[in-house]
Amino acid sequence: MILTFFAQDRRGRLSYYTLHDRQPSLDGLPSLTSAWRVEGGRERERHYSFANERERDRALRRLFTRAVRRGYRLLYSFDRSGIGRFGIGPDLGPDLLPRTAPSRAASDA
């Protein structure tokens, strides 16, 4: 999962703020990384580890809400089905994907 936000200050400089779960924790616990930078500046990161996915999702909601309240707008989002879906969990992932008809080659076999 990745969420990227942006905001523009009074001088027109863009600020970017990203939340993602792509960087795994060394101890295998659910993790979340926040990264931020001002246009032309160096990116800074903060890495969080959690005891379970529920705590991670709660922190994700809190950080998302904080970014929106600070004036950030969503620029980009990506989510692997069922992973990091704000508490839905991997067991429901297949139900979120669109159903497709079997291919003709599969039906001929």
How does the SSE layout of this entry go?
Blueprint: E1 2-8, E2 14-20, E3 31-38, E4 44-49, H1 53-69, E5 73-78, H2 93-96, H3 104-108
Antiparallel strand pairs: 1-2, 1-5, 2-3, 3-4
Description:
The chain is α+β, with helices and mostly antiparallel strands. The protein has one domain (2-79): q64v53_bacfr protein fold (Single Sheet). Helices cover 24% and strands 31% of the residues. The protein has a 5-stranded antiparallel beta sheet with strand order 4-3-2-1-5, covered by helices on one side. A hairpin with a 5-residue loop joins β1 (2-8) and β2 (14-20). The radius of gyration is 18 Å and the shape is elongated. The protein starts with a strand and ends with a helix. Mean pLDDT is 79; it is low at 84-101.
The percent range for strand residues is 25-35%
How many DSSP H or I helices? 3
Shape: elongated
List segments where confidence is low: pLDDT < 50 over at least 5 consecutive residues. 84-101
Short recap of the structure:
This protein has 109 residues and is an alpha+beta fold. Helix content is 24%, strand content 31%.
Descriptive key words:
single chain; 109 residues; q64v53_bacfr protein fold; 5-stranded antiparallel β-sheet; 24% helix; elongated
